[in-house]
Design goal:
Layout (H helix, E strand, L loop, with lengths): L3 H13 L14 E4 L19 E4 L8
Antiparallel strand pairs: 1-2
């Protein structure tokens, strides 16, 4: 639980702190099309079937990026 002193301190920070606006730079992600809808899945694994056209990123993107 918070004590009254802690709550007053938190309220003071919330009221007195200036608003901070963070702006992210625009990014462009290279994409490649994945097509051939209706192709059959790999009979061994069952993976690989594509039911519709879509695009996927060309490169891996990490959380830190």
């Amino acid at each position: 639980m918070f004590s009254k002193t802690m709550v007053r301190g938190l309220l003071a920070v919330a009221v007195l702190a200036p608003a901070v606006t963070v702006r992210a730079a625009p990014i462009t992600i290279a994409m490649v099309p994945v097509g051939n809808p209706g192709n059959a899945a790999d009979p061994t694994t069952g993976y690989g079937a594509v039911a519709y056209n879509y695009s996927i990123g060309t490169y891996d993107v990490t959380l830190s990026q």
